[in-house]
Amino acid sequence: MLASDEFSRRTANELGYSGFYPLITALRQAPASAAGPDFLAAHADEGVRKARDLVAFTFRFDPAAARLETLGPEPGAATRAWLAGRLAARPAPQKGVERRYETITGDVTGSLRFAVLSPVDASAGSPVVGFGVATEALAARFQRALARGSLFPPSLSHGALGNDALSLRVFDPAGREIFRAGVPKEPYLGVERPFASDYNGMLDGFVVRAAVDAAAAPALVIGGLPRSRLPLLLGLLALTAGLIVTAILQLRRERALAQLRSDFVSRVSHELRTPLTQIRMFAETLLLDRVRTPGERRRSLEIIDREARRLANLVENILRFSREERGEDRIDARERDVVPLVRRLLADFEPLVAGRARIEVTLPEQAVACVDEEALQQILLNLLDNAVKYGPEGQVVRLSVVAAGSRVVFSVEDEGPGIPESERARIFEPYYRLPRDRSSSVAGTGIGLAVVADLARLQGGEARVEGTPRGVRFAVELPAAAPAAGAG
Q1: In sequence order, what are the beta bridge partners of 133?
Q2: Are 121 and 216 in contact (CB under 8 A)?
Q3: 0.85 cut: is pTM over it?
Q4: Looking at the DSSP assignment, which residues form a beta bridge with residue 395?
């Protein structure tokens, strides 16, 4: 079971992170007339070029006209009819639900058909772009997942078992075998597991059957089997329960830590990839002088500036979090009037909004608090960025600063989907993301709010989250400056 789960996780990473995600991102950014297989094969991003073998053809579907256009090898009448029918029958978009991409599969004339398409747009009836999957390329991705190392945890048999002790078979939703590695042996010691729901459930309906060679089974017992089974049976009578519980807990902890590390690296990679791709694309546009008007040149420069700022904020978050984990973060808290600091921060943040939201600000004439300027800037940047990122387009984000006795309260309120009360206690934990956000197209590392909570604590304050009728409010309380001697 552990080996099949690890194979499922690796396969999802090979197909989702290294395949479908860069391909669909490139197609969505490409001009409609050029978004074909040749465009992907010559793309500036090496990840897109490496994933090109997964694409049989690309398509663009206009739901208003029920018109399907394809580029690349002709998919055939049966495939075209199946794809057009599935696209036309897609349900209406759900507001507030965002996904990186969607996958659809079907059985057309006895063959697997697999397509990947762009997420549901916020506006109903907008064109959909995507690609038909070259299903023969799936086996290569399964093989690459298998070749990344042993599927058995290192703590099980001290790394003595390799994948040669396993047999694996993958079946599509119609029950056809599409991948095989190794040959099952008698007696059959195996399990059948569905693929995990990672990456928007792209392999829903696919199953993997994994079996271990019976001759290798003794290696799964720590220390191996003794020559005589009588001492083993007598010893296990007293120790079995404790050993099983301990082993299960250790294996689960090891798997959880490995999954946590893998997810964090994957999320950071996603967040870095998006601004870097935008910067490279528009920088190449300027270098090759492909802009036609001064307005297009300015827009290209604005996008480069916006994405560079976003990238700088992400890197600063990671550095802050790393220093805090090592206990090396230092705070220089001094008495400062925070109102000018907030005004400068808003001027720097405006390019990141890019018309997605309107920011309303409520500031007193003066509010003196004991703060570190850079730490306060990072706190407010993270809260504002979260509000814009998770809220609907066109929302009003409200930022306020209130001096309340011995505290100065900074609050950011959005009009997004809010945070369930049951999740609010965990929202400031490192790496934690709400279940609904893990499968959405909203990228995140799970450390932004952890950085906010840590920086507030280091300055003698605290961070909290509150529900509102229209969304959610994050508030950070920091110590106000001590009154001068004799005041009052």
Answers
A1: 55
A2: no
A3: no
A4: 357
* Helix ranges, 177-220 (H): 198-201
3-class secondary-structure state, position 196: coil
Q: Which residues contact 260 (CB under 8 A, 6 or more apart)?
A: 431
How do residues 96-117 score in pLDDT, each as one tens digit? 555 678 888 988 878 888 887 8
Q: The tokens 């009360």 sit on which residue?
A: 421
Cα–Cα dist 233/224, whole Å: 14
149-173: pLDDT as tens digits: 877 776 665 566 777 778 889 998 8
Give phi and psi for 466, each to the nearest 5. -135, 145
282 neighbors 303 (Cβ within 8 angstroms)? yes
Residues constituting the chain: 488
Token code pair at residue 472: 């959610």
SS (H, E, C) 264-288: HHHHHHHHHHHHHHHHHHHHHHHHC
Give the orientation angle of helix 294-325 with respect to helix 338-353, to 10 degrees. 120
Q: How far apart are CA 284 and CA 261, in angstroms?
A: 34
Kind of pairing between the strands at 334-337 and 177-181 = unpaired
**Segments in 52-107 forming alpha helices (H):** 77-88
Report how far residue 280's alpha carbon sits from residue 300's, in angstroms, rounded to the nearest whole number.
11
472 near 437, Cβ under 8 Å? no
For the CA atoms of 348, 354, 356, 358, what is the dihedral angle to 10 degrees? 50
* Three-class SS state of 358: strand
Contacts by residues 229-234 (CB-CB < 8 Å, ≥ 24 positions apart)? none
